[in-house]
Amino acid sequence: MTAVLSRGRAALASGLAGGVLLATSATPWASAAVASLVGDDRVTVSGADAAPAVPALGIIALASALALALAGPVLRRVVAIVLAAAGLAVVVLAVGVMRDPGPALRSAAAELTGVPELAGAVTTTAWGWVCAVAGLATAALGVALLSSRRSWGTSSRRYERAGAAPSTPPQPEADRPRSDREEAMDDWDALSRGEDPTADR
């Protein structure tokens, strides 16, 4: 992976990871029935509700994509560490919610009914696991950037005009081709002095 991890690929991968984290955190992760004054109701929590830090970590991954597009060797290592830590944090948070969504659902039930109690079985969706996988991929990207020895050197000719021809020094007067007008004037001057202008030709 490190052999083909160019600047553009790394920035794209980080941006995609951040987008997936944000998208999956907005989806429903778990739901359960609750008892309310008007009968049974149902509460649903999204990833952002159950793990509020996940959207923030997704934004960090998106910001890292921009940083990687401009990064030198030192900044690349800093961004790699941030990505690895953010990805691992997402995995821990997402897996924790999916294994036990009860606290998040009871908190949602308390907001809905005033009583933090559930009245039925808890159901989960696959989105939390998708988010965990995206977090794992984000962490793997950070590790790959840390172990990569590929150079992302910048071009020193960035601001040079493309296709500009190198300047040529002016030719010495003796080597410069003479125009017909200049030769005619020299011939006239020679005739005025009584000389034959064709003698040297």
TrEMBL record:
<feature type="compositionally biased region" description="Basic and acidic residues">
    <location>
        <begin position="190"/>
        <end position="201"/>
    </location>
</feature>
<feature type="compositionally biased region" description="Basic and acidic residues">
    <location>
        <begin position="173"/>
        <end position="182"/>
    </location>
</feature>
<feature type="transmembrane region" description="Helical">
    <location>
        <begin position="78"/>
        <end position="98"/>
    </location>
</feature>
<dbReference type="InterPro" id="IPR019051">
    <property type="entry name" value="Trp_biosyn_TM_oprn/chp"/>
</dbReference>
<keyword id="KW-0472">Membrane</keyword>
<keyword id="KW-1133">Transmembrane helix</keyword>
<feature type="transmembrane region" description="Helical">
    <location>
        <begin position="126"/>
        <end position="148"/>
    </location>
</feature>
<feature type="region of interest" description="Disordered">
    <location>
        <begin position="155"/>
        <end position="201"/>
    </location>
</feature>
<protein>
    <recommendedName>
        <fullName>Trp biosynthesis associated, transmembrane protein, Oprn/Chp</fullName>
    </recommendedName>
</protein>
<keyword id="KW-0812">Transmembrane</keyword>
<dbReference type="Pfam" id="PF09534">
    <property type="entry name" value="Trp_oprn_chp"/>
</dbReference>
<feature type="transmembrane region" description="Helical">
    <location>
        <begin position="51"/>
        <end position="71"/>
    </location>
</feature>
